C-alpha cells in the first residue's frame, strides 16, 4: 500500500526571524543569519593524542555535530592541530587561553577558526594587530569568547562581578580592537553559568553589534541540570532570533551535548525534525505500560534519519486523536493497539506486537520516502506518537 504522507512543502513556522548579522565561514560551515544555526561541541581528549582526538571527532560528526573545538594548552597540542584539522570531517576550532603564541600556531595549522579568551591572554590587546593580520592572511575567523569565570581583571574591578554589562563591555572592547585593524570576521560569546545573566548579556550584545553570536551557558552542570539550563537560556534567545551557533556544555560525554543541541533546534523548528516520539505521560487510565512501550519504540527507531512523528498513547482518551495526527501511531486499550498510518487505522494488533509493528511500519514509510525522492528534496515532517 502506498502511503500518502501529505507533507507540506512550506517550511514549518518559527517564533522569530533571525537577527541580521554579518556572515562568516568556519571552514565549510557558514555562521550568521543567512545560515542555519549550527551545533558545536568540544573534545575531551588530550589534543596531542591525535588518534584519540580524531576518534572522538568522528563520533561527534556521526552524532550530527557541525563544528568541533579542541583545547590547546601546550606546545604538543599546538603541534597536533595541523593533522587534526586536515583529517577531521568537520571544521576544527582551536581554543586558546593564556598563550598568544598558540593563536598563531592554530592559524598556521589551518584550523577553521580560533577561539580566544581576552581575559586569559596576558597583554592580549597588544597582540591584536598581529593576530588580525595572521587571521586575515589565512582567512581564519576569530571567536572572542568572554567567560564569566575569566573576565578581564580591569572589568572585574570596574563592575565588581561578571555582570551582563561587564561581559558585553569586554567582548565589544576586544571586537573594537580588531575592527581598528579592519578585521571583522568575528563571532562573539559572553557565557555565564546563570541563564538569567547569560540571556541578558546576549540580549544586550545583540542590540549593540551585528556580529554572529555563539550561545553557551558555561559550566551548566551535569546532564540533567545542564540540559535544562541550556534549553531554557537558548530557547529564550533563539525564540527572539538571537544566536547563530550553539554549544550545550555538559559534564557528560560530548556526544550528549550534540544530541541536546540538535533537539533544542528541532524543538524550535530551526532544524528539520527527524524522529519525534509523541508519547503520553500515562495516568490511571492507561491500559498498557506506556513508559516501556515508548522506550522500546524509541530504541527500535534510534538512528532513523527520516523525519517521522510517532505517537505512542496509553488509552482511548487522547490516543486516537494523537495517533491520527502523527505519521505513525498506536492507540492502546484492552490489550490491543490500533496502528495508525497517516490518520488511517491500518491494523489492530495484540499488545505484544505493538512495538514490532510500529518499527515495521516506520521502516516501510522510510523506504517509500527514500524511493519517492522526498527525503532528497528535504520535504516532509513525519511524526510517530505513543499514547
Ligand atoms: S492518553 Fe490516556 S493514558 Fe495517556 S495520559 Fe492521556 S488519558 Fe492517560
Automatic annotation (TrEMBL):
Record keywords: 4Fe-4S, Iron, Iron-sulfur, Isoprene biosynthesis, Metal-binding, Oxidoreductase
Keyword presence, Chloroplast: no
Cofactor, how bound (note): Binds 1 [4Fe-4S] cluster.
Domain IspG TIM-barrel, chain residue ranges per copy: 21-261
Pfam short name (any one): GcpE_C
Alphabetical list of Gene3D superfamilies matching this protein: Dihydropteroate synthase-like, Sulfite Reductase Hemoprotein, domain 1
Cofactors: [4Fe-4S] cluster
GO BP terms, alphabetized: isopentenyl diphosphate biosynthetic process, methylerythritol 4-phosphate pathway; terpenoid biosynthetic process
Positions of [4Fe-4S] cluster binding: 280, 283, 315, 322
Superkingdom in the source lineage: Bacteria
Enzyme Commission designation: 1.17.7.3
Enzyme class: oxidoreductase
Alphabetized SUPFAM superfamilies for the sequence: Dihydropteroate synthetase-like, Nitrite and sulphite reductase 4Fe-4S domain-like
Domain IspG C-terminal: 276-362
Catalytic reaction equation(s): (2E)-4-hydroxy-3-methylbut-2-enyl diphosphate + oxidized [flavodoxin] + H2O + 2 H(+) = 2-C-methyl-D-erythritol 2,4-cyclic diphosphate + reduced [flavodoxin]
Record GO terms (molecular function): 4 iron, 4 sulfur cluster binding; 4-hydroxy-3-methylbut-2-en-1-yl diphosphate synthase activity (ferredoxin); 4-hydroxy-3-methylbut-2-enyl-diphosphate synthase activity (flavodoxin); iron ion binding
Pathway: Isoprenoid biosynthesis; isopentenyl diphosphate biosynthesis via DXP pathway; isopentenyl diphosphate from 1-deoxy-D-xylulose 5-phosphate: step 5/6
Protein family according to the UniProt entry: Belongs to the IspG family.
Function: Converts 2C-methyl-D-erythritol 2,4-cyclodiphosphate (ME-2,4cPP) into 1-hydroxy-2-methyl-2-(E)-butenyl 4-diphosphate.
The protein, known as: 4-hydroxy-3-methylbut-2-en-1-yl diphosphate synthase (flavodoxin)
Lineage per the UniProt record: Bacteria, Bacillati, Actinomycetota, Actinomycetes, Pseudonocardiales
Gene: ispG
